[in-house]
Amino acid sequence: MSHLIDIRGVTHAYRTESGPLPVLDGLSIAVPEGGFTAVVGPSGCGKSTLTRLIAGLMIPDEGEVRLHGERVTSPRSTVGMAFQNPVLLEWRTILDNVILPLEIVPTKLKRREKEERARRLLSLVGLDGFEDKRPSELSGGMRQRASLCRALVHKPEVLILDEPFGALDAFTREDLWQTMHQLRAEETFTSVLITHDLRESIFLADEVVVLSGRPATAQYKLPVPDTGLRTLDELYTAEAAERLNILRHQIEIAQGRAEPTDTASQPAPPPGSAAQALT
Ligand SMILES: Nc1ncnc2c1ncn2[C@@H]1O[C@H](COP(=O)(O)OP(=O)(O)OP(=O)(O)O)[C@@H](O)[C@H]1O
């Protein structure tokens, strides 16, 4: 299988006043074309650092990040990003905020075509009629929907989502999860999602990677079977409960609160799953 995102043996340390701070230690993750990988792990273990490396905003000390086989050494226009804080520009309308990447990334599209693309995405996420509003006139959930459209408007190959739903209330967050599924059905992209929400990870991703404590490595990888467009009901099945238990246990190991060898308290992988412990 071809891997669009290939993170190979990445090791990285920040230089701080008190000396080097090792953050990632031989981390390897591969995401196939069209795949959706969620990355979870203890707070401060290096998840956002990983997104900066994929986006080419930083170069790792050792190892490499490849997109389509090409080594990433600088930021690329083929990557879209959405963060916890949508940072929309108040002096632009929602439509013009979404169009912004098309003004930065070289494109042959005419203004009318850029508008059509932005309007289609806004309609897809349920923001018809809000194109001419300013960001402050929208709710937090609506702003995050607009930010997803902005991240996708230039048809990036890779969509990096760093806690995009983290600041939203539980109901809005669940709405946005379903919106993400709809976007995935309509648009073509390969995604890495950073999240602290284990339910979000199994609802959205094909694979959940649990990072160890800092310096982080890929401690555990849990595949999530493809069930097409998922519904929230699927989060309340026995299989979902088992997956969440496995992930919770792995997070406890990563936090040093459970022993890796403590198999007695570790639930068995769901029937038929290829859950794979890497420790
Ligand atoms: N530019 C930087 N310079 C120095 N240290 C940094 C820098 N950015 C992050 N760090 C440190 O590196 C470690 C990993 O940070 P990172 O933001 O990647 O973790 P994270 O897993 O995303 O955290 P959280 O789950 O809390 O969002 C933290 O200890 C952080 O303080």
From TrEMBL:
Domain ABC transporter: 5-238
Lineage top rank: taxon: Bacteria
SUPFAM superfamilies: P-loop containing nucleoside triphosphate hydrolases
Family annotation (Gene3D superfamilies): P-loop containing nucleotide triphosphate hydrolases
Location of the region described as Disordered in the Swiss-Prot/TrEMBL record: 257-279
Alphabetical list of Pfam families matching this protein: ABC_tran
Record GO terms (molecular function): ATP binding; ATP hydrolysis activity
Keywords assigned: ATP-binding, Nucleotide-binding, Transport
PANTHER family: ALIPHATIC SULFONATES IMPORT ATP-BINDING PROTEIN SSUB, TAURINE IMPORT ATP-BINDING PROTEIN-RELATED
Family (UniProt): Belongs to the ABC transporter superfamily.
Protein name: NitT/TauT family transport system ATP-binding protein
Organism: Tranquillimonas rosea
